[in-house]
Amino acid sequence: MSVIDASALLAFILKERGGDRAAATFAGGVMSAANISEVLAVLIRKGATIEEALAGFLDTGIVVAPVSEEHAVTAAALSPLTRHAGLSLGDRLCLSLALELNRPAVTAEKSWKSLAVGIEIQLIR
Fold first, then answer.
1. Cα(77)–Cα(119) distance, integer angstroms
2. Strand arrangement of the beta sheet that strand 121-123 belongs to
3. H-helix or E-strand containing 123?
4. SS3 label, residue 96
5. What are the structural domains, with CATH classification, of the chain?
6. pTM for the full model?
7. Where are the beta strands (DSSP E) in 41-88?
8. pLDDT per residue over 69-105, tens digit each?
């Protein structure tokens, strides 16, 4: 069971390198609502309708976790620890959820490997 970053789900939906590896982590996987919003926005920017974008996500079986006040506070606290890697708010919310659930975070972002935030980071490529 893993926490899925937007980059990992996008790699799968867009049939990018590492997408199959990402898909192997979807069963029992969870994703922050903020990261789902990121994925949908990228797909819409690439020309999908909201219905098409949602269909690509719904087929994965990934569970959506709401962004709680606790996640927001933890994401803010992660800011100084992740600044060197250029993480966005969505990235930090993904890590915050992984910390809360004590699960590995799955991503395509190589810069995450340099992080020391107390959870396992699994790169898909």
1. 15
2. 63-65, 30-32, 3-4, 105-107, 121-123
3. strand 121-123
4. helix
5. 3-123 (3.40.50.1010)
6. 0.94
7. 63-65
8. 999 999 999 999 999 999 999 999 999 999 999 999 9
